[in-house]
Amino acid sequence: MQGKIALEEHLAIEATLGDSQVFGSHVWHELGPRLIDVQDIRLREMDKHGIEMMILSLNAPAVQAIHDVPRAIAVAREANDICAEHVRKRPDRFASFAALPMQDPEAAAAELTRCVKELGMVGALVNGFSQAGTPDSVLYYDLPQYRPFWRTVEALGVPFYLHPRNPLPSWSRFYEGHNWMLGPNWAFAAETAVHALRLIGSGLFDECPGLQIVLGHLGEGIPVQLWRIDGRNGWMKAPHKYPASHGVGHYFRKNFHVTTSGNFHTPSLNSVIAELGADRVMFSVDWPFEAVDEAAAWFDNAAIGEPERTKIGRDNAVKLFKLKI
């Protein structure tokens, strides 16, 4: 398929490049340059494999792992200015998500407003929980102090991409002796799914019904679990006791979108389409941690209908992010 749009596609700046080495130290000679590059290798890969546009985002955990709050604010601003410059060079091929200093909800709201209104960014991508003040601090965004931030996101009318990061070592004892489960193997999905469910259960989407959240990797495992999450021994008639007014499935189908980033498996894709509908699924690669050729070849030949392929490959992203292409 020609004209695909990919939207979990990362770059790094000097201040954040080292954060990604752990995810590919044995290929760092190639991975590092790919993270820094935007206008060369990346464009050639896009051209070869039918990708018209990539939405750029900062690598992980980057800003979220900077517990010095003023520095987190400064690095986010620097990253956003660099991304915006890349987009200005090729607005026909790139758009960008904002990196946000979520350690300070007021600063995050101000930076997102600047990025959308002044830099023309199409949303935000945030790498999970944030650390603020001390290295062991953990802030999830269902906490009360984030409500004004979420109202700003809703008012700006842009989506928020909740991207994974590993749990802190002090929170990871159940992985001891099994570090192979960290990162994309398991911990990324587990951490992000819990964060998304916290947002749902907190009642956030009752207060901000227009808010739209994007999850990668075909929904971090949540779609296949929706029935069980809400069914939970249904004969006992023991509904969820949380601030939200409805079941998890209600909000997930109304306020969430998922991408194919790093999960190129047709049975899983068809399961997600069955749960959410093709209108809430979008193509992505997860460049440079995944390969454009593998993602594109899989998607172009996946056993789905051609109307669904067009929606997922292009049309849904154009609509959600209001892309002018």
Tell me about this structure.
With 325 residues, this protein is an alpha/beta fold. It has twelve helices and eight strands. Helix 3 packs parallel to helix 4 (105-117) and helix 4 runs parallel beside helix 5 (147-156). The model has no long low-confidence stretch (mean pLDDT 97).
Layout of strands and helices, then pairs:
Layout: E1 4-11, H1 28-36, H2 41-48, E2 51-58, H3 69-89, E3 94-96, H4 105-117, E4 124-127, H5 147-156, E5 160-163, H6 187-201, H7 204-207, E6 213-215, H8 222-231, H9 248-255, E7 256-259, H10 266-276, E8 281-282, H11 292-301, H12 306-321
Parallel strand pairs: 1-2, 2-3, 4-5, 5-6, 6-7, 7-8
Helix pairs in contact: 3-4, 4-5
Largest sheet: 5 strands, parallel
Beta-strand residue fraction: 5-15%
Order of neighbouring strands in the sheet with most strands: 4-5-6-7-8
Count of the separate structural domains: 1
CATH-assigned homologous superfamily: Metal-dependent hydrolases
The N- to C-terminal Cα distance equals: 16 Å
